[in-house]
TrEMBL record:
<dbReference type="InterPro" id="IPR050272">
    <property type="entry name" value="Isochorismatase-like_hydrls"/>
</dbReference>
<dbReference type="GO" id="GO:0016787">
    <property type="term" value="F:hydrolase activity"/>
</dbReference>
<feature type="domain" description="Isochorismatase-like">
    <location>
        <begin position="3"/>
        <end position="141"/>
    </location>
</feature>
<dbReference type="Pfam" id="PF00857">
    <property type="entry name" value="Isochorismatase"/>
</dbReference>
<dbReference type="InterPro" id="IPR000868">
    <property type="entry name" value="Isochorismatase-like_dom"/>
</dbReference>
<keyword id="KW-0378">Hydrolase</keyword>
<dbReference type="InterPro" id="IPR036380">
    <property type="entry name" value="Isochorismatase-like_sf"/>
</dbReference>
<protein>
    <submittedName>
        <fullName>Cysteine hydrolase</fullName>
    </submittedName>
</protein>
Amino acid sequence: MTTALLIIDLQRALCVGEYACHDVDAVIGRVNGLIAQARETGTPVVFVQHEEDGWEPLRHGGEGWQLDDRLQAQPQDPRVRKTSPDSFHRTELDAVLKGFGVTHLVVCGAQSDFCVDTSTRRALSSGYDVTLVEDGHTTIANGALTAPQIIEHHTLILRNLNSFGPAMDAKKASEIRFGAA
């Protein structure tokens, strides 16, 4: 099984300022730990960046569209642009992953209730095994639920998606080991 670390939408607009997601500093810290471990084991690290031409904070190329400065991204890391909550929809993500021979994704990022959820489901329906980093995804409150409630709810729901065929699991960042059989 070839694994890739998939980091979704940890961009400045969602990590700093008015739209900053819940506990994002700690989430980025855990994601950086996973990035370091992935690099040590030769595991591909793939970043996804959301863009919306009609919304200035996520306009392609704008300040908010950039990856958060705290992320340990490197120039050679593949970066996939997307315009919907689905990281696979009208993007080259599947081709990038197939180019590495990936069959298993470790998924983290923002937002739990939009792009993380949708991309996880799409990965499963596309045949990828998925491990959700349960303390490595985040969001903002939505008026009905707090951000921690949304994060917990989506972790619970996604962890139990076993009808797609591929394996689905959720683990804390400290429990994830790249290169382990």
